[in-house]
Amino acid sequence: MSTDLIDPTTASVPAVVGIRKSGKQWKHPKAPFKPGSTTTSTAPSAKKQSKTYLARQSLRLQSSLTKLKEKELKAEKEAERNARIQSIKDKRAAKEEKERYEKLAVKMHAKRVERLKRREKRNKLLKER
């Protein structure tokens, strides 16, 4: 067991990087790509995050308003379409009803004419007696 005390100031300092294996010592070492951490030394991270959060909130609000408007327009368009379809159906039904009544009138007229002919025939026979 070692009784060496670790100095907290030297423990946090990273180790010195040695010679690179690729042989490109003139290249600067890159930090890992972390898209979530967008901090800069000039701007405090809290302010930047709040700005981005506010920007996202406003974008969400705008998109939700746009979606609401689109839904409203689609519903209005669908209602107009349904009204047009319903008017066409009503016109067709009225036309069919009219044709049915005309056929019925022709049929009833024929029956009435036949009935009148029979009556005339009967009257003629009665007169001849």
UniProtKB/TrEMBL annotation:
<feature type="region of interest" description="Disordered">
    <location>
        <begin position="20"/>
        <end position="52"/>
    </location>
</feature>
<dbReference type="InterPro" id="IPR005579">
    <property type="entry name" value="Cgr1-like"/>
</dbReference>
<dbReference type="GO" id="GO:0006364">
    <property type="term" value="P:rRNA processing"/>
</dbReference>
<keyword id="KW-0539">Nucleus</keyword>
<keyword id="KW-0175">Coiled coil</keyword>
<keyword id="KW-0698">rRNA processing</keyword>
<dbReference type="Pfam" id="PF03879">
    <property type="entry name" value="Cgr1"/>
</dbReference>
<feature type="compositionally biased region" description="Basic residues">
    <location>
        <begin position="21"/>
        <end position="31"/>
    </location>
</feature>
<dbReference type="GO" id="GO:0005730">
    <property type="term" value="C:nucleolus"/>
</dbReference>
<keyword id="KW-0690">Ribosome biogenesis</keyword>
<comment type="function">
    <text>Involved in nucleolar integrity and required for processing of the pre-rRNA for the 60S ribosome subunit.</text>
</comment>
<protein>
    <recommendedName>
        <fullName>rRNA-processing protein</fullName>
    </recommendedName>
</protein>
<comment type="similarity">
    <text>Belongs to the CGR1 family.</text>
</comment>
<feature type="compositionally biased region" description="Low complexity">
    <location>
        <begin position="34"/>
        <end position="47"/>
    </location>
</feature>
